[in-house]
Specification:
This protein has 132 residues and is mostly helical. It has helices at residues 2-10, 19-36, 53-68, 74-104, 109-131, and strands at 41-42, 45-46. Helix 1 (2-10) packs antiparallel against helix 2 and helix 1 packs antiparallel against helix 5. The chain is globular, with a radius of gyration of 18 Å.
Amino acid sequence: MLPVILSSLIIPLLSQHLHLFKIGLLAFGSGLLMLTFTGTQIEGNPYTIMMTSGNYRKMLNEWYLYLTSRNKTSLQKRNAHNYTIVVLSFVIGACLLAFVSLALKKYSIWIVTFTFLLALFIEIHQAKKTIR
């Protein structure tokens, strides 16, 4: 996560004439982010950290399985809810960032930096709890 945090922190500080460098830096950071969170799970179910059709497809599939099943289980409903939360989180986050970017312009990426820093601190805290 550190390369993503550092790259998103310095992007607004770069000259406006370095567009190709920014694109490369953003692509590098996104690739590292996807590699870092490969295999991420929520209650044992894998999901993709990037907003792709995979999460949306899994959400629809879980709802279909739950709604068409004769023997509905709470696990099926829980899985459907979890994927719905993941998809809605991406959509709401993207919409909020679009509105915030109107006010903060190029500095709006620092909200992403702050979010990743918060996630990093939570991960460190969780790791310390499991070591004890």
